[in-house]
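Journal club prep — side note

Before the paper discussion, L.F. wants everyone to see what a predicted structure for a comparable chain looks like in C-alpha cell form. Sequence:
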Amino acid sequence: MGGLHTIRFFIGMVKFYSAFKRAMIVFKGLFKGMVIEIKGLFIGLVIEYKGLFKRAIIEFKGLLKRIGEIKVILVRWPYNYIKRRTS
C-alpha cells in the first residue's frame, strides 16, 4: 500500500460513507475507528485503543464477525503514519 496517497484515500472513504459516522478517525494521539475499502469490499473497524485493541467489529460481504483482541499488525501501518504525523 502506498503511503500518503493511501491514507488520503482511506480518509476520503471515511467521509464518503457518511452512514458510518461512528467509524471515524479521532486524533487525540490515539485513534478510535477506521473505515477501510479494500478491492471494492467494505470493511469497517470500530476500535477502542487503551494500550490494547479491545474490540473490533468487521463487516465483510454483509457478514459480521466479532474479534475479542486484534493484533497490532492488522492496523500497524496507519497507526504508525498517524503517530508520526501527531508527534
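L.F.'s comment for the group: Residues 3-86 form one domain. Keep this in mind when we get to the figures.
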